[in-house]
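User: I'm curious what two different proteins look like when written out as structure tokens. Can you demonstrate?

Assistant: Sure. I'll show them one after the other, since each token string lines up with its own sequence. Here's the first protein:
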Amino acid sequence: MKNKSVLITGANKSIGFETARQLGLLGYKIWLGSRDKERGQAAVDKLTGWGINAHLVIIDVTKTESIEEAVQQVLKEDGKLDILINNAGISGAQPVAPSAQSISDIMAVYDTNVFGVIRVTQAFIPLLKAAQEARVIMIGSGLGSLTWVADPSHPYSQVQAMGYTSSKTAVNAITVAFAKELTAYGISVNAVDPGYTATDFNGHSGPRTVTEAAAGIVWLADQAPGETTAGFYFDQNRAPW
């Protein structure tokens, strides 16, 4: 049994929940982050039914007070956090041309996908520093890869979702920034593209399963060399920024 804990935001369903399941079966203590208490508790009950050590954390990444309460909950029980997985995200309006997407919609996307990631990571840094060789994993997207979306021959170049795609490009930049600072403390920071996965996020239109999507996240959390940092990965391979 591992003496390690992982907190996953937005983990009551889809890729976040599957990541919690896979890591839980590997012996990690799961802090399952959810904005909704009822849905979060139902997810925790499923995990515990499979013999996984799972606990609910109510966390809204857009609200500083909610994040601080989550930090205090983990601090009080564990005193440290081994792995933080920033999974919570929203899609915003799509498909919509950049000229037609409202500023308010883009701001809402950034509040969760960009500022939420920054808020949560900053808040948990003291607990990550208290662990040995802690890891931070940002759930990015291939749609955030400027290389891919700028290539007319790549399917991602056809997606009309400026708020979402640019938010995930920002996540890549945030990943590098935190990685540069935290490497001195033995904390690795990486981003991962789960791929086009069938979830509620896209009306279950993606060809990949949540099991496949979570595998790359679990690899970064559990198997990737500790010195792996400041990278963007897809299925254990470096992806282009």
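Here's a second, unrelated protein for contrast:
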Amino acid sequence: MVRYEKADTLLQLAMDMQAARGGLSLGDIEDRYGVGRRTAMRMRDAVLRSFPQAEEVATDERIKRWRLPAGTLNRLVGFTAEELASLEAAVQLLDRDNREDEADTLAALSAKLKALMRPEVARRVEPDLEVLLEAEGLAMRPGPRPRIKVMVLEDLREAIKGSRKVRLRYRKRGMHQVKERLVHPYGFLYGHRNYLVGLHENPKANKVVLFSRLNIEAVEVLSDGFVRDPDFDLSAYAAQSFGLFQDEPFALVWRFAPEAADDDADFVFHPSQEIELQNDGSLLVRFTACSDLEMAWHLYAWGNKVEVLEPARLAAMVNGNRMAWPALP
């Protein structure tokens, strides 16, 4: 069994080497397979022995990389029912979260993969795929969801890819007046609402701002380009907030009651969180982020099972009202 598992891992590594156009380094192998340097070297050497057509990639780095030429493993690549079911589940998740354009793109990819399968393999996989999709069906998210403007999203994506300025016709929430905004589009954030992240063209307001996609009435993609701020990282920008709204981050300490501690220990409230189990069975959660209003919305769901210890502003919003809210079932 162990030998079969090793062969399977080496075949997967060979496929990864073919898929990586820039090649894989020893560090990449360590990270992808969770192994040490010596094991990574043995794995690389085994692939190079089995596939002598493997080549070292010339790069400007001091790190060596290896890849397999395109087409080397095409006859060996197959798709399992589990893999196709996961892809179908991703399509359903995107569709449920009101990201219909991305759902359509993944659905098209799924169809292409099925078209590549040999007929006899497809016939074997199809029944298992049906069962898995039925067993892992996704419940619809309760409550309303906004309609998206497909052309708006397509235009924004085109502008982001080409680093081109856009002129938005934008309506602020709660207002009927539509105003024009000249914006450098950077990317999207997805949550209970979906937002465009961009910079105002106006130098007086030249800071990163969020535009609700629901309130973007129309987009004009301009011929003028813009230079992206090299210091701006969308992932880092999103990670500094508890939700979508951005402000100055602050330190937080939440205490969850003993009867809720087991469930809460499995939650990832924020990437920077630290959890500490107390002697009385309660759980302290610490992290640094911003957007206290969104935190309050979330914490109300825990009822009287949570207490905010820091900061005082959030404690006033949550602790004084928590007894009026039902505890989690």
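A detail about the second structure: The radius of gyration is 25 Å.
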